[in-house]
Each structure stands twice: as C-alpha cells, then as structure tokens.
Amino acid sequence: MKRIAIVGGGASGLLVAVNLLRKSDACEVTIFEPREKLGLGLAYSTKDLEHLLNVPAGRMSGLVEEPKSLCHWAKVDENDFISRNTFGKYLEFLLNRELNRGKKLEHVRSAVVDIESKGGLFNCSLENGTLLSFDAVVLALGNSESITPAAFDGLPKSDRVVRDVWREGLSTSYDRVAIVGTGLTFYDIALSILRDRPSAVIHGISRNGLLPRPHLRHRAPALPVPDIARESADGIRRYLTSMGERWREAQDGTTGSDLERSVERLVSPVRCRKWQPVLLHPKRSGQHRIRVLSGIHFQRYG
Ligand SMILES: Cc1cc2nc3c(=O)[nH]c(=O)nc-3n(C[C@H](O)[C@H](O)[C@H](O)COP(=O)(O)OP(=O)(O)OC[C@H]3O[C@@H](n4cnc5c(N)ncnc54)[C@H](O)[C@@H]3O)c2cc1C
User: What predicted TM-score, i.e. pTM, was given to this entire model?
Assistant: First the structure.
C-alpha cells in the first residue's frame, strides 16, 4: 500500500485526495491542513453568500469525467455563478461521497514545516516535531500571504488598517473606507460593506481607474487567434489594438457583447505563454496597456 501525503487541504488538496480515492484502492492518503474543514482554503471559506465564484458553474466541476457534476449537485445552469460558500459545500460533498463509499482519508491538523527526502521516502516534519514518512508528497500550498508594498510601511498597526483582507477579515462598521486595488476582491469587500452599511462611502483606488468587467451572459464563439498574436509581445499588442478598435466601433450595436466576449476568451489562452514577460514587467516591455486589458477582461466578476 503506497502512502501519499498531501500538504495543504484547500480546494486543490481536497480534489487531489478525492481523485486518488476514486481511482485507486492501493494508497493511503493523508492530508496536512491546519484548518478544521477541508476544501475551503482562502477562497471558499467566506461566509458571505454574495461572494460569488468568478467562473460559471459549468466550468467549476471538481471531476474531469463528470463535467456537469457541480451543476447537477447545485441544481443550477452551467452559466450561473454560485456563491463561493456553496462551492465549498460542493467540495465537502465530493469528499464525503468517497468516504461514505468506505474510502479512508486521514486529516492531520498541522502545518508541515519541513520535508526531507531520504532512502526513497519523504519525511514530513510537523509543527510539534513529529516526523511522518510517505512514498509520495503532493504540495498544494495555495495562495501565499499578500505582499504589502514598501510604500505602506509607515502605516500604523491598527484594526483600521487591513493588509490582507481574506486572512485578517474586515469590520463593515466604518462610514468611509478606502480600498487600494480595484480587482475582484474590491467588489467582494465593497458589496459586504454596502450591504451592512448602505450609507458607507467607499473609495476604490487603482493605477488605471478601471474595474473588472462583468461576465457576459451571451456566449459568443471565441475568435481564432492569429499566429502573429502568439509570436511576440508586439504581435499581441497589435492584434489587441485592432480588436479594441473593432470593439469600440461596435459598442453601440448589438454585436458589442459578441466582440467583448471574444476578447475575453482570447485573452486567456494567449496570456498563458507569451504574456508572461508582459504581465510580469509591463513597463519594461512597454506593454502596460495589455496588462490593464488582461486584468479587466480575464478576471471578470460573476
Ligand atoms: C478571494 C478569492 C476568490 C477566488 N475565487 C475563485 C473562483 O471563483 N474560481 C476559481 O477557480 N478560483 C478562485 N480563486 C482562486 C482560488 O484560490 C483557487 O481556485 C483555489 O481555491 C486554490 O486552492 P488551493 O487549494 O490551491 O489554495 P488555498 O485555497 O490557498 O489552500 C491552500 C491550503 O494549504 C494550507 N497550507 C499552506 N501551507 C501549508 C503547510 N505548510 N502545511 C499544511 N497546510 C498548508 C493552507 O492552510 C490552505 O488551507 C479565488 C481566490 C481568492 C483569494
């Protein structure tokens, strides 16, 4: 019997465990996760039902061989955006289904602080000094802590200054709140504050002053991506610029959403490869605008 350790029990760790349990009777699986519940991690532990997935339900199945699994479980359409809290319950369901079939999983509530490879085994050290050996290890450590830019070093330590909102939480009792960064977290936090305190004034501050675009209900087919857009950062820029012109022309017409949808679909595959230097060093590559476009089109809210 092979012993497999999964370090980190967020969505990724849980799904690795579920798939191992489904596909093999010849392994013992142990998950190391300090949190009480498996599967929630950072993204799905929110209790606010207005915090939605930013990917439609039809693309969030936890099982490759059952692409409609989430839609069937949640009884929703594939284009619906369900709450992240509900998605966490779906992950729990997937795991419990395997456990109810008699599959075994051990959840050790500790962080792994070190891993050493010795004699063909992986020795995992826990916080309390315990050492456990495994035949294989999966690292599913997930989202690291957010980095606060040095410019904010002078801010006092205070419960009115939140540096990492998903880890520290936020009181929704203030009248005026400034949120630095206007990505998807901005929407979630602003929604929670305004629901609890409708008179609150929220200032969203970002370098470009743009907000993520909403997902479109209308599913237009993706446009084919020409080779030139895949070859160089400049090719991407020229292609997107031409798209942008067509798109602006169509803004008032009924085809506007088709084109917008296509840009959204197009940005995703292209950005994976040649976009790396552009996304990581936008100023150096002179492609700041592409990074901005990618941010608001790719990371859409549900
Ligand atoms: C606010 C927010 C919203 C998101 N919304 C979506 C969405 O709608 N759709 C989508 O597809 N993705 C979304 N994401 C991305 C999301 O994070 C991933 O889809 C997914 O949750 C990542 O899961 P994970 O298990 O890799 O990481 P995490 O959820 O970060 O889980 C990692 C786990 O590892 C544990 N861990 C870390 N280090 C150790 C250690 N040394 N020992 C033991 N345990 C350890 C942590 O305690 C944690 O529970 C969102 C992310 C955030 C932050």
Answer: 0.81
CB 12 less than 6 A from any atom of ligand 1: yes
Q: Is 83 in the pocket of ligand 1 (CB under 6 A)?
A: no
Structural domains of the chain sorted by starting position, each given as residue range(s) with its CATH number in brackets: 2-139 (3.50.50.60), 152-205 (no CATH), 227-298 (no CATH)
pLDDT score recorded for residue 125: 97
Quote the pLDDT of residue 245: 63
Residue nearest to atom 26 of ligand 1 (CA): 142
Integer angstrom CA distances of residue 108 from 33, 104, 231: 6, 13, 47
Quickly count: other Cβ atoms within 10 Å of residue 242's Cβ: 12
Query: pLDDT at residue 257 above 70?
Result: no
Ligand 1 pocket residue status of 53, Cβ below 6 Å: yes
CA distance 201 to 35: 34
pLDDT score, position 96: 96
Q: Cα of 258 to ligand 1 centre, how many Å?
A: 32
CB of 141 sitting under 6 A from ligand 1:
yes
pLDDT digits (tens, 9 = 90+) for 164-195: 888 888 888 899 999 998 888 898 999 999 99
Nearest atom in ligand 1 to 60's CA:
11
> Which residue's CA lies nearest to atom 40 of ligand 1?
111
Judged on CB neighbours under 10 Å (0-12, 13-18, 19+), 72 is exposed
